[in-house]
Amino acid sequence: MxxxxxxxxxxxxxxxxxxxxxxxxxxxxxxxxxxFNAWKSAFAKEAKKAGVKKPGLQALSSAQYATRTxxxxxxxxxxxxxxxxxxxxxGADTIVAQGRxxxxxxxNFYASLERQYGVPAGVxxxxxxxxxxFGGFMGDSAVVSAITTLAYDCRRSDFFIPHAIGAxxxxxxGAITAATKGAKHGELGHTQFLPGNALKYxxxxxxxxxxxxxxxxxxxxxxxNFLRQKGWKPGQGYQPGEPNFHVIKQWNAATVYQKAIAIMxxxxxx
Length: 270
What we know:
Elements: H1 11-18, H2 36-49, H3 54-62, H4 67-73, H5 83-89, H6 92-105, H7 107-117, H8 121-132, E1 141-142, H9 143-152, H10 157-173, E2 181-182, H11 195-201, H12 216-229, H13 245-251, H14 255-269
Antiparallel strand pairs: 1-2
Helix pairs in contact: 1-10, 3-10, 6-8, 6-14, 7-12, 8-14, 9-10, 10-11, 13-14
């Protein structure tokens, strides 16, 4: 399969992702739902200045304060477990067993990803399994509502504001809609991309002219592209202490997650 990167990210979009959250200083954050509608009105002005067009602004207008997202953000217990406990809870043995079968069923596709991006099949497959059970459950929260709620919430608004802008631009491009479902933190698709990263690193792997993170081919190629762009060194190791381990950290900041991916990936590739 010929895999091509879709060159759809405008210069403004890339620059925006590098801007500090102060770019949206007119939109005052809050820790309850009471100020969300006022925040949306203020944020809409900043989004428009950043290049968000009518479809994205309409999606912002219809966004609802996501109470379940806030509850999930305050209760991320699994990343505090020991590595052994974390892997048990997340079903590591099942991911490895199913991952080996998936690689065996479609070796050419995974080989093509490694040729183009340098990322071994095991790493991509482990992330796919860890994030959504290989697409079995990609989330039941409205992406735009979830990510804008986190951008409004004072706890980590600096981090989520660029991703909220990214989500609105994805709506403009037709990649998602206001109703698209994803994880509670606004991640979308097979490997749970945050919207700003989806905008920047998305790849049209199946050649249909659009990047669709709910297409397995596009999502996995985009994941490989993300890791390569974050510094993955082809042919180098990815276990703790090896050159590529720090790149896994770019995908998820939790050490227990990073170690689990490295362990599962090695077993899948073995």
